[in-house]
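2 proteins. here.
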Amino acid sequence: MYVDRGPEPVRFARLVTLRVSDEGALETKRLRRRVMGLLAEQPRALLCDLSAVTTLPDGLVDVFHAVARHLTEWPGTPVGLVCPDGRLQRESLEDAGSGRLVLGSTVDVVEGLLAGLAPADHASMTLEPGLTAPRSARAFVARACLRWQAMSVTGHACLVTSELVTNAVLHADTAVHLTVSHYPGRLRIAVQDGDEMRPATAWTSASEPMVTGSGRGLLLVSSVCRAWGVYPSDQEGKVVWAVLDDCSAVTGTAASSS
């Protein structure tokens, strides 16, 4: 497997390409980890090029079904699948992640489809470990929500941010990279630290609890999130993420029509 992050150095503006060989496709568990690690970086889009895969191994379809389920929860980073294999295209399209998983037989076709999809808005900051980090993170997220007019989710977003940043500061003791992203109807908070130690129970959805040193606070987080989880970063450490429903646009429409 080979990752091409493209010439654009600006975070969130990149089209990241993962080229998969026959050998890489056979290691489906490692492939899934790599794909999820790249999605944790929240690029503008992720392109998975399977043009060199000549034999469809067992489990490869399951990898992209897992990706499609992730896109249903967080549609902000679309995924393009380059695959001449008709079976993989057909079976992947059965669960296509609300139109954010696009498929085609050539790179040019898939890049064109990805370019036509609306990107998410992002804001990010780096925090040094310390007692003031959670407060600075909350203020940053509140300002981002105000800029995106996502007022309905601001309170819960600040609560989630505070808990995730506090955990990173206490347990990782490294610099913390905070990203808050907005896509219509969704707000995503992602906290990356330099510690590869995963929580005792890794979450893939809000129905699978993650227990860490402050599990009580994380249970509170789970009660307000649509979904959350932890992925290994493709570069270093891990990313703990949470997705919340943003009803601001619906609320605003209802208010203006009354």
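next one coming up
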Amino acid sequence: MRFICTLLILLAFTNAAPAQNDLLLLRKHNKTVRQFYPGISIQFFTENMQLVNGFITRISHDSLFMNQYDTRTMYTGWGSAVVDTISTYHIAWSYKDIVGFPAKQKFTSATIPSILMIGSAGYAGLNIVNAGLLNQSLTGTENLGKLGIAAGVFGVGYLLKKSKKDYLPIGKKYKLVYLRV
């Protein structure tokens, strides 16, 4: 009798709690880069380049169900600030509406173009101010060479910044695969 009761209880619990969930895999040339499953946070871009972030609650039938939290800074009576959740939104997205994921920026790829642009602009500005203070000609060969170098370095920084995408686009290189378990 005990054996039958124990068996019925175990069968009831196994039917009520599924062991596996569906997955979304971000793959780069058939190698998995990221896995998305219920219980983790996700950030992605939609077709109009809107950044959506939230926590995945369920993945089923090619749809991604998630909770979005609207958090804002609230001020207390003592003048300090506290981050508080204003509301929660339950939304669903088709995984086919996802066009990209934010890329994890490395320090060098994010800052070197900016350093080049700021440094060259500062050098050119300093050269212009010094030419005015020392009564030198801006169109002289020495000044034009320095300003040309500054403009070239600024251009290199600008091109580096524009050539680097800040997101991983879904397409040729990256693919989003729905894995039904």
